[in-house]
Write a structure and sequence with these properties.
Elements (H helix, E strand, L loop, with lengths): L1 H7 L4 E7 L5 E7 L3 H11 L4 H6 L7 E4 L6 H4 L3 H5 L8 E10 L4 E9 L7 H8 L1
Antiparallel strand pairs: 1-2, 1-5, 3-4, 4-5
């Protein structure tokens, strides 16, 4: 499923996240990234990821949004998660569209990524993903 969703909006990768209220994190599904890479993200990087933190803002729960509107790419490029983790993925996951959804149990999220060379997501991509 993650690969089909990524293909539908011209994304390189897609992650289905789950955040437990006790602070735990897991990736329920993903494409492009290796399982070891996803494990490292959950253990080391998720809680300091500006995209992840922006998506958890209460005003963004239960709606798709363009992450660069909350965490500009110029600032993101200066972050350790980009320089020490994401950039190693080739062109780097540099553009993101995200939706966090709240449930009575915990929060889930879906995040689609494009490499820097692919250009940013636009409002039209949000419409494509929400249909």
């Amino acid at each position: 499923m993650p690969q089909r969703l990524a293909d539908a909006i011209g994304a390189r990768s897609m992650i289905l996240h789950w955040s437990h209220r006790d602070g735990g994190y897991e990736a329920l599904g993903f494409c492009h990234f290796a399982p070891e890479w996803m494990q490292s993200y959950g253990e080391t990087w998720a809680m300091c990821d500006p995209w992840f933190l922006a998506a958890k803002h209460p005003n963004r729960v239960n709606r798709l949004f363009l992450v660069h509107s909350a965490a500009p790419r110029t600032r993101f490029r200066q972050q350790p998660i980009y320089n020490d983790f994401l950039r190693d993925q080739g062109d780097g996951a540099f553009c993101c569209v995200w939706d966090t959804f709240s449930t009575p149990w915990d929060e889930g999220a879906i995040a689609a990524h494009r490499a820097a060379g692919a250009g940013p997501f636009e409002e039209a991509d949000l419409a494509d993903l929400s249909t």
